[in-house]
């Protein structure tokens, strides 16, 4: 009987597990690093234990600290979530040894599935189809995939398209794997060009339907759905059967996922791996199967549950992973403050979020903000609903992959079910072009800003905005992305201002009325409307020239004469190294390099007279 | 032509005249100025004032009808800088290098009078080549007042700030010289008493602009410049920071809540007859410029003495939440009763420290035996006495006619209302053009008869027409505005806004009514 459960994880998955705990009357314990102290999951838990530091290796990956947290908080069970220690057999064992309930499969199952080579061996023996490269590959076997045994999430994978490169790639993969996972073991398997990633949810050896997780970017899942589209009944039945065999082969307990590579061209599938934990994408299964997988996990852990057959799947569910990342910039993770984070939770929409308005997204962990899931009678309806909710969500402060997700969900090829793991790499057909016009939202932003200035007035409050008795020029509101010209009483070429307020502006453009909501955070102006989200950056009206000097500029602290210049342009200097010596009022001042870097500019010579504040040299920080 | 069409035509003509002022020295000089990376006076002002705030330009038609360009090579007006209502003056360097002509001087005098009466800080955007030498006789002697006014303002604790963008030499050097704060733009400002040629002639010394009066020199050596600006934008930025630190507090706290008028101000265009002989009800105007009914304003206009002296409407209303007393002509003519009513009303407003608004549409005090015998002069004198000695702020709007002593009684220019604005429909003169020509004819006829000469009525017709046309021309708003006899011609629909700004501006000084008037002869 579990009374108090500690989730050895963070953010959305911790919140997700807590939710079920609350429903079951189980007390909850969160652990958190320094950076995560203010995330919602910490507040939601009944108790929270602080693990000092930020790096996962100092916090969420520290078995000793997690167990200590459980002891101190009086937890009697541990749920590992996904990632971190969730597939660490040593951790599972340590939890069990500490006399706590481990919400997960047996350490042996974890171990067996943890090694990809070992897992394949077991599966092959159980009659589950596996991918195997011939011992002596020939041209006909190309392309091949070199994979790190201990890897995951796409790391340590390399596609080889020419036999001559195979050896080098194996060596590279080994080196990479050794440094990344501390285990240099790699294996080679055939690479399916247009493969799909289809997986089967099991609890124990019972099958709870299938999912498609083909849509990936850099081998990270982005869009997941249940059930997997476009499978024939025979294929689906065979997949489920294979998953059942896989689970039985290791006498599996609790929730797990058997992943397969599916080739739609040949309708063949192969076992890839088994994840001995709750999957990120478990909500799509929960929605179509009408179950709570965390509840089932907890029941399995307490051996108090007997399994019946799950209901047949109902409708279709699609999940997207909303990341703080910039798709236009190689998916670079973003960090900063989510100044607004509001996803409309409507009928058929589920949001599993780890962050809220005002949360800080740090660089220490995965940049996933939330999972947004739509459940509808058909796949098309779910996609349409999800795209609509996403485009109406208010997400300010950070660049996200939201627009890309909306584009995928509206892509005709996606809607036809033509999904494959290289979908995002290929030229997608693109959604029916809804080019986001920036001018109109910028007009709305300019007017909202003017209304805000009006509301903040201390004098002449009743006077119309920008009123002039003699008009000489338009008012200009300048954003980095666009400049808006308007006149008092809000006359703007091409638009009619129907309503204006500090955070909402209604414009009639070409006979169409649209309401824009405008949020201002410092210089960032976020405009949301049914046409989507546009982020603008205000150009300040005035900038103090003293603040404009190139960063790294060394300024003369007072007027004086340059006694000596100790460096040359191009020279590498270390922090604190003298750059220029000045003499003024019989005192010598040494101007030193502020950081390690390179002298990119020297503006003075010995003997030169300089004024206070004059730039002497520029040292650019390296890297 | 409907009233609206007639008014719109006049407003279009007004726009055309305003456009002349905005055009400054014309395309060529504006282009040259911009090519030097410099901003026009109104561009400087637009950057100086708070974003989205109002700018009430004053006397934009100054110099209209004179030999000098409309606008008189300077822009003046009231703008809000960092939440502070300031008098802003800006030379227009595209008009003869920003040189001051007689109208420039008059326009600046008026601006400094407004600043003084309302206690406003002044920000001068300086770039002027000095006096227009051919007209120096009209500028030099009276012009000294410009400098006197700057330091007197300072003594009254009304800060003066000079942002120097270019030439400010000879006498002009005393504008930054007398100001509390000076900002000079690097490599642009030039402030000296005598330039290199004059210095050479006077002392034989060889010199250059920069060492005699450059911004760097004044910032680092002479100390005349308190701030050295990198460029024009920087000067404006610094100017705003100076105002932000003035610790400015208005004498009267602003009102917080009010309702917009119950009737659309746009209707004013239909209301004003194109023929001034036709009277109109000023209550219709009041309903379109004053606050509508709200929790804090149960009645739009509480009329005082509604049954007495009905040709003048008096009463109380609110505008942007501020209480005002209104005197408005209803039937043109002022009789004894109207004059007495007005006198009492002005006293009442002074008793309660309430500002007064005069809405002119008067043909003057009634003439004729009966009225003279009834004491129209002494009653008219009472009214003029009251408005002359009243110390609550007065605002005047000339809606239609403003003739004869009616102009005085209704607080015309000579009686120094804080602000006076004119509608395009207005006409103002000692009497109507036809009457004036007619009077001239009668006088000429009497003169001829006295000399025993025959009166050539046919021949005088030409003179009469000429006089009539001339008086008509000189009664027109553009002409009077050009003479600085008002603070501007405004669109009637903007009246509420203009008055709202004025009422806010006057609150920079305490509003205190008087109990001291001249001797009344009741």
UniProtKB/TrEMBL annotation, chain A:
InterPro entries named among the record's database cross-references: ATP-grasp (IPR011761), BC-like_N (IPR005481), Biotin_BS (IPR001882), Biotin_carboxylase_complex (IPR050856), Biotin_carboxylation_dom (IPR011764), Biotin_COase_C (IPR005482), Biotin_lipoyl (IPR000089), CPAse_ATP-bd (IPR005479)
PROSITE patterns: ATP_GRASP, BC, BIOTIN, BIOTINYL_LIPOYL, CPSASE_2
Cofactor(s) in the UniProt record: biotin
Residue span(s) of domain Biotin carboxylation: 1-429
Domain ATP-grasp as annotated: residue spans: 115-302
Domain Lipoyl-binding: 545-620
Entry-linked Pfam families: Biotin_carb_C (PF02785), Biotin_carb_N (PF00289), Biotin_lipoyl (PF00364), CPSase_L_D2 (PF02786)
UniProt entry tagged with the keyword Manganese: no
Keywords, comma-separated and alphabetical: ATP-binding, Biotin, Ligase, Nucleotide-binding
Protein name stated in the entry: Biotin carboxylase N-terminal domain-containing protein
């Amino acid at each position: 009987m579990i009374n108090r459960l500690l989730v050895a994880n963070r953010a959305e998955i911790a919140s997700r597990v807590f939710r079920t705990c609350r429903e079951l009357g189980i007390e909850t314990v969160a652990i958190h690093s320094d950076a995560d102290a203010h995330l919602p999951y910490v507040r939601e838990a009944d108790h929270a234990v602080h693990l000092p530091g930020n790096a996962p290796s100092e916090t969420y990956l520290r078995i000793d600290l997690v167990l200590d947290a459980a002891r101190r908080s009086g937890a009697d069970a541990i749920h590992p979530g996904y990632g971190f220690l969730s597939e660490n057999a040593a951790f599972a064992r340590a939890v069990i040894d500490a006399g706590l309930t481990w919400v997960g499969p047996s350490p042996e199952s974890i171990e067996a599935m943890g090694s990809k080579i070992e897992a394949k061996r077991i599966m092959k023996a159980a009659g589950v189809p596996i991918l195997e490269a011939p011992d002596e590959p020939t041209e006909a076997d190309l392309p091949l995939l070199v994979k790190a045994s201990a890897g995951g999430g796409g790391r340590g994978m390399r596609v080889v398209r020419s036999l001559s490169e195979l050896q080098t790639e194996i060596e590279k993969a080994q080196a990479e794997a050794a440094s990344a996972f501390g285990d240099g073991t790699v294996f080679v398997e055939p690479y399916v060009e247009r493969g799909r990633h289809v997986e089967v949810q099991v609890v124990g050896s019972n099958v709870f339907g299938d999912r498609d997780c083909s849509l990936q970017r850099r081998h990270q899942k982005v869009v997941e759905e249940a059930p997997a589209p476009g499978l024939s009944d025979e294929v689906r039945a065979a997949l489920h059967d294979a998953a059942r065999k896989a689970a039985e082969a290791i006498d599996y307990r609790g929730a797990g996922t058997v992943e397969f590579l599916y080739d739609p061209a040949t309708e063949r599938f192969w076992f890839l791996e088994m994840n001995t934990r709750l999957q990120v994408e478990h909500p799509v299964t929960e929605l179509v199967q009408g179950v709570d997988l965390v509840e089932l996990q907890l029941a399995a852990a307490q051996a108090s549950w007997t399994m019946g057959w799950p209901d047949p799947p109902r409708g279709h569910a699609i999940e997207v992973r909303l990341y703080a990342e910039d798709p236009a910039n190689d998916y670079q993770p973003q960090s900063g403050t989510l100044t607004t984070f509001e996803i409309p939770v409507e009928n058929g929409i589920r949001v599993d979020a780890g962050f809220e308005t005002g949360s800080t997204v740090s660089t220490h962990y995965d940049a996933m903000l939330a999972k947004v899931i739509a459940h509808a009678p058909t796949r098309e309806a779910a996609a349409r609903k999800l795209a609509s909710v996403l485009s109406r969500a208010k997400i300010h402060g950070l660049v996200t992959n939201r627009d890309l997700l909306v584009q995928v969900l509206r892509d005709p090829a996606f809607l036809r079910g033509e999904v494959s793991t290289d979908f995002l790499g290929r030229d997608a057909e693109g959604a029916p072009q809804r080019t986001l016009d920036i001018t109109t939202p910028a007009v709305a932003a300019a007017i909202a800003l003017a209304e805000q200035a009006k509301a903040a007035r201390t004098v002449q409050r009743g006077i119309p905005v920008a009123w002039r008795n003699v008009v000489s020029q338009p008012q200009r509101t300048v954003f980095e992305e666009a400049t808006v010209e308007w006149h008092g009483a809000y006359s703007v070429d091409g638009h009619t201002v129907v309503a204006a307020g500090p955070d909402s502006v209604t414009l009639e453009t070409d006979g169409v009325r649209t309401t824009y909501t405008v949020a201002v955070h410092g210089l960032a102006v976020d405009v949301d409307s049914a046409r989507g989200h546009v982020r603008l950056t205000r150009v300040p009206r005035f900038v103090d020239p003293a603040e404009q000097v190139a960063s790294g500029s060394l300024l003369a602290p007072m007027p004086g004469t340059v006694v000596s210049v100790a460096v040359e342009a191009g020279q590498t200097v270390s922090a604190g190294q003298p750059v220029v010596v000045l003499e003024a009022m019989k005192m010598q001042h040494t101007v030193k390099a502020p950081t390690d870097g390179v002298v990119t500019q020297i503006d003075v010579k010995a003997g030169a007279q300089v004024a206070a504040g004059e730039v002497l040299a520029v040292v650019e920080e390296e890297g | 032509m409907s009233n609206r069409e007639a008014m719109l035509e006049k407003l279009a003509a007004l726009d055309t005249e305003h456009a002349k002022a905005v055009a400054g020295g014309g395309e060529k000089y504006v282009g040259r100025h911009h090519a030097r990376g410099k901003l026009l006076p109104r561009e400087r002002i637009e950057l100086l004032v708070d974003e989205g705030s109002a700018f009430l330009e004053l006397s934009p038609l100054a110099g209209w009808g004179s030999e000098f360009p409309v606008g008189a090579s300077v822009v003046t007006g009231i703008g809000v800088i960092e939440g502070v209502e300031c008098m802003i003056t800006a030379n227009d360097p595209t008009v003869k290098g920003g040189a001051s002509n007689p109208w420039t001087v008059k326009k600046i005098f008026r601006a400094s009078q407004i600043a003084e009466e309302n206690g406003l800080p002044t920000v001068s955007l300086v770039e002027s080549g000095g006096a227009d030498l051919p007209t120096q006789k009209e500028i030099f002697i009276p012009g000294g007042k410009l400098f006197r006014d700057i330091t007197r303002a300072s003594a009254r604790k009304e800060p003066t700030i000079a942002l120097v963008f270019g030439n400010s030499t000879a006498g002009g050097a005393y504008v930054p010289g007398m100001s509390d704060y000076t900002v000079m733009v690097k490599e642009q400002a030039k402030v000296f008493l005598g330039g290199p040629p004059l210095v050479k002639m006077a002392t034989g010394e060889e010199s250059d602009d920069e060492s005699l009066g450059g911004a760097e020199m004044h910032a680092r050596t002479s100390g005349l410049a308190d701030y050295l600006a990198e460029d024009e934008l920087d000067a404006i930025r610094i100017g705003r920071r100076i105002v932000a630190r003035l610790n400015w507090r208005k004498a009267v706290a602003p009102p917080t809540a009010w309702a917009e008028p119950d009737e659309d101000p746009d209707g004013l265009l239909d209301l004003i007859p194109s023929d001034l002989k036709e009277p109109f009800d000023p209550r219709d105007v009041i309903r379109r410029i004053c606050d509508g009914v709200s929790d804090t304003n149960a009645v739009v206009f509480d009329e005082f003495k509604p049954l007495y002296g009905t040709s003048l409407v008096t009463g109380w209303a609110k505008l942007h939440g501020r209480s005002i007393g209104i005197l408005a002509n209803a039937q043109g003519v002022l009789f004894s009763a109207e004059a007495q009513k007005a006198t009492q009303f002005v006293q009442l407003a002074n008793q309660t420290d309430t500002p007064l608004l005069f809405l002119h549409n008067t043909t003057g005090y009634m003439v004729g035996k009966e009225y003279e015998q009834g004491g129209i002069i002494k009653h008219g004198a009472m009214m003029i006495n009251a408005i002359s000695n009243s110390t609550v702020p007065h605002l005047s709007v000339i809606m239609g006619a403003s003739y004869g002593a009616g102009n005085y009684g209704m607080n015309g220019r000579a009686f120094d209302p804080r602000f006076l604005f004119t509608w395009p429909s207005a006409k103002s003169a000692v009497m109507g053009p036809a009457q004036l020509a007619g009077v001239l004819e009668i006088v000429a006829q009497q003169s001829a008869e006295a000399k025993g000469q025959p009166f050539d009525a046919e021949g005088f017709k030409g003179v009469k027409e000429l006089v009539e046309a001339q008086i008509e021309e000189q009664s027109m708003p553009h002409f009077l505005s050009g003479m600085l006899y008002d603070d501007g011609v405004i669109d009637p629909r903007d009246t509420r806004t203009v008055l709202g700004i004025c009422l806010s501006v006057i609150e920079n000084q305490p509003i205190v009514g008087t109990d001291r008037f001249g001797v009344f002869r009741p």
